[in-house]
Design a protein that fits this description.
The complex is a heterodimer.
Chain A: H1 16-34, E1 39-40, E2 46-48, H2 49-54, E3 66-68, E4 74-77, H3 82-90, H4 93-98, E5 101-109, E6 122-132, H5 136-151, E7 158-164, H6 165-173, H7 179-190, H8 194-203, H9 208-216, E8 221-222, H10 224-234, H11 238-256, E9 263-266, E10 279-285, E11 293-297, H12 299-304, E12 310-317, H13 318-328, E13 338-342, H14 348-360, E14 364-368, E15 378-381, E16 386-389, E17 392-395, H15 399-405
Parallel strand pairs in A: 1-5, 7-9, 13-14, 13-15
Antiparallel strand pairs in A: 2-4, 3-4, 5-6, 6-12, 7-10, 8-9, 10-11, 11-12, 15-16, 16-17
Helix pairs in contact in A: 1-5, 5-11, 6-11, 8-9, 10-11
Chain B: E1 4-9, H1 12-23, E2 39-41, E3 47-52, H2 57-62, E4 68-72, H3 73-79, E5 84-88, E6 94-100, E7 112-116, H4 119-128, E8 133-137, H5 144-147, E9 153-158, H6 162-166, E10 170-178, E11 180-184, H7 186-191, H8 193-210
Classes of the chains: A alpha+beta, B alpha/beta.
Chain lengths: 413, 217
């Protein structure tokens, strides 16, 4: 293929079959999310680089795809869905009082540095953001909505893992480490790398009690009951106790609502701590190597935009969702009925009238001028006044006669 | 029930890992070092071994093509993969070092050129020190680079130091110790935890009870 006709790395075409599935899934997710009161919004595809850079520690600047504006300012293709929405809310405070639940379906662009094409440079996300008053019940509703979104997309073997940013953070603060050291410790906890964590804490001369507690954090995951028992043993300060209490209450209520078997806990879930500040969660599907949903409460960001509100939200990785749905064959897209109208040129006007009539009734109609490649469920040979339905042939006299015979009368589709 | 896939780096690490798995009762009798097969099933049928190139172990595990992997810390760092790094297995121990001709000091260069098979590790290391360097990516015989003037120094894994010695090079600076690590795919560890976690616990128990293991690369 000529070079000029090739696609750049990390982007892809979607052919009808895949795109129809994507649209159907998006539609289904929209349907679920809007039933919780979320309203769709859209932010621009590119914005100023400074917007994302000035929000501390959320985006890796190397990952942004940059453009230069006419006046020399740097623009970036949307590298994240949440920051632009927070900006949008901060610029329209009065509007927000009227509604504060946002739903988005959007493309995210990231420069992936890897040599392989595995992770795409343009991917789609469906998500929600709720600028709220941080009521604990809102966390529950968000988690229920996350599970329902996946469930109603037809997915099986869903596992939603809950964490609490405050538990680890409160403990870390007692260790007396510099900000740089804290980041290294956080990274080791995130990797569940007990061995290096232990060496590191020794090197940083963290006192034995705190060291032993920090080393246990990576192992505090699994079923709620066992994790809570272990976590209580090391919850020494007020912050840890509070975080744990909140999580226990959350799980308790989710259990009452019948979601127990979707839920697990990981108190070592610390990968986005500069972003999330309270309840965090991510969802996995058994047999798929990456999380497909990620979310939590983030107060840092709203603080940065001077918003006098808390916020909670999640994003679903739509492309991953599609891969799983295809593998599990769990989502059925409804196909409209298709009819082929075969006609000779002399009967074109009549045939077109029939076709329009049928289209008006929600049928997909393809016109043919030769009897060659018919793909529809039914074929109408208009010039011969003959219909073929699933291999059977019958004749008709008028269009009305046909509609009756094919069961299209009175919109009885 | 779905099998658990274990990715091992072909060669010595694979042999040592299989030895370790045997100690916890996980046997792969169908495995032969000389075999050309790349997949082996465990005796009970619950586990599957796949043999890949050392540098690919991280990729297989990160993407969930394998649930568990054993790889050297060197390859994990170089590929910077997003996985759980659960156990320092203690074997495959060696270290990264900067080496060059005798008498060379890193401070004598304003702009250091470094020959290495590990450009990422090299860049990260010198960046953290605030030193400007230029890496030259090589795929083997790294020791040659300073001798023929391709680079000022080299960054490589040092085992006994005999290769350096034979080529009249010396260690200028030790960078870090490395060893074989057991890594697990993040999603697998959560969704298949009832199968993977006991295995990890047993491996940890064996490794911890052995204390520090032989010093070999």
């Amino acid at each position: 293929m000529a070079f000029s006709q090739q696609l750049p790395q990390g982007v892809t075409d979607l052919y009808a079959h895949d795109y129809e599935l994507k649209q159907a899934l998006t539609g289904q997710l929209r349907h679920v999310l809007s039933s919780y009161g979320y309203r769709p919004i859209q932010t621009p595809t590119f914005e100023y680089y400074d917007l994302f850079m000035s929000v501390p520690g959320t985006m890796d600047s190397d990952q942004m795809i940059k453009l230069i504006d006419r006046d020399g300012k740097v623009l970036v293709l949307r590298p994240d869905a949440t920051v632009p929405i927070a900006r949008m809310v901060s610029q329209s405070q009065s509007e927000v009082e009227m509604y504060n639940k946002f739903l988005y379906v959007t493309n995210i662009f990231r420069m992936e540095s890897g040599e392989s094409d595995r992770s795409s440079r343009s991917f789609s996300q469906v998500g929600v953001e709720w600028f709220d008053d941080a009521h604990p019940l809102n966390d529950i509703e968000m988690i229920v909505m996350a599970i329902e979104s996946l469930k109603q997309s037809g997915l099986k073997n869903i596992q939603l893992e809950l964490g609490q940013a405050g538990f680890f953070q409160s403990l870390l603060q007692e260790a007396g480490l510099t900000e740089q050291q804290q980041l290294v410790v956080q990274q080791k906890v995130d990797e569940k790398n007990e061995y290096e964590l232990s060496r590191l804490l020794k090197q940083y001369q963290v006192n034995d009690q705190i060291k032993n507690q920090l080393i246990q954090i990576p192992n505090l995951f699994g079923s709620p009951k066992s994790v809570f028992t272990e976590a209580e043993k090391i919850a020494v300060n007020r912050g840890m106790k509070q975080s744990l209490k909140r999580l226990v209450e959350l799980v308790n209520q989710l259990e009452q609502l019948g979601y127990a078997h979707y839920i697990s806990i990981d108190l070592g879930l610390v990968n986005h701590l500069n972003y999330y500040s309270g309840t965090m969660f991510q969802g996995y599907i058994e047999g798929y190597g990456k999380p497909i949903i990620q979310g939590g409460r983030y107060d840092q960001l709203t603080k940065y935009f001077d918003l006098e509100t808390s916020a909670i939200g999640f994003g679903i990785y739509l492309d991953d969702l599609i891969s799983i749905v295809k593998k599990q064959q769990s989502f059925k897209t409804s196909q409209p009925e298709k009819i082929d109208v075969v006609t000779e040129e002399k009967d074109f006007v009549k045939a077109m009238e029939v076709a329009q009539e049928l289209r008006g009734k929600g049928v997909v109609v393809n016109m043919h001028y030769e009897n060659d490649s018919n793909t529809g469920d039914q074929v109408i040979y208009l010039s011969e006044k003959k219909v073929e339905i699933k291999g059977e042939t019958f004749t008709f006299t008028t269009v009305e006669d046909f509609l009756t015979k094919a069961g299209f009368v009175n919109g009885n589709n | 029930m779905e099998t658990i896939k274990i990715a091992l780096a072909k060669g010595r690490l694979a042999d040592l890992s299989i030895e370790l798995f045997e100690q916890i009762g996980l046997k792969f009798t169908s495995y032969h070092e000389k075999s050309r097969k790349l997949m082996f099933t465990s005796d009970g049928g619950h586990y599957e071994l796949i043999l890949v190139k050392a540098t690919d172990v991280g990729t297989y595990v990160e993407n969930g093509a394998a649930d568990i992997g054993v790889a050297g810390k060197d390859t994990l760092l170089e590929a910077s993969v997003d996985v759980f790094e659960l156990v320092d297995l203690g074997f495959g121990r060696c270290r990264f070092a900067v080496a060059g001709e005798p008498g060379v000091s890193l401070n004598q260069y304003h702009h250091l050129t470094v020959g290495t098979k590990y450009p990422k590790i090299t860049n990260d290391y010198f960046k953290a020190q605030g030193k400007q360097i230029e890496t030259i990516k090589l795929n083997g015989s790294v020791e040659l680079a300073p001798l023929v003037g391709l680079s000022d120094v080299v960054v490589d894994i040092v085992e006994t130091g005999s290769t350096l010695k034979e080529n009249n090079l010396v260690i200028i600076e030790n960078m870090m110790d490395i060893s074989a690590r057991l890594v697990v795919n993040k999603a697998s560890f959560k969704t298949k935890d009832e199968k993977i976690r006991p295995l990890i616990e047993q491996v940890k128990w064996i490794v911890d009870s052995k204390g520090s293991v032989t010093n070999e690369c």
